[in-house]
Fold:
Amino acid sequence: MSADTGSFEEIALGYIDVVYRVAVGLCGKSVDADDLVQDTFLKAFERFGMFEQGTNCKSWLLTILRNTWIDRLRHQKVVGNVVSLEDDIIDQAGEVDEDVKLNSSELLERFSDEQIIKALKRLPHEQRLTLLLIDVEQLSQNDVAEIIGVAVGTVKSRVSRGRMELKTRLESYAKEMGLTGGEK
Structure:
């Protein structure tokens, strides 16, 4: 058992930062992400005997993370959502003027990481996870398709729709905060 523990620590724990970043992106709150990462690594440790050494451990861990996240979402549907009084609800019906045209890099430079993560949290979880894996973790579309269990074409469409939705949300936030249009 100690050899397995040593192998697990050597192979899997090197990816804890990656798993944590993706978990924060999914959960939005570091406390929830901590719990999700802990559950992920516990499940990975329990199943480490089934892991084929020499294969992509990062993908294996992110698959476990995704499945654990889905289990939590299913559980939440049964139990119901707990909404904090401090959580702000953003009006999602806001439209962006046609004359407000920002390229993506200009728009992203105007927002803090926290604001981008907030907008990312508002995306459907399938799009959010796909964008996190492609854009943040720099995984290939083939790896992402394997991790989330869909076809590569589905990954491509989720990335496209997710980026478009994220851009729309950020443009709307920029307008609300006065970052576009009437700037000096």
User: Anything to note?
Assistant: Residues 152-176 form the longest helix (25 residues).
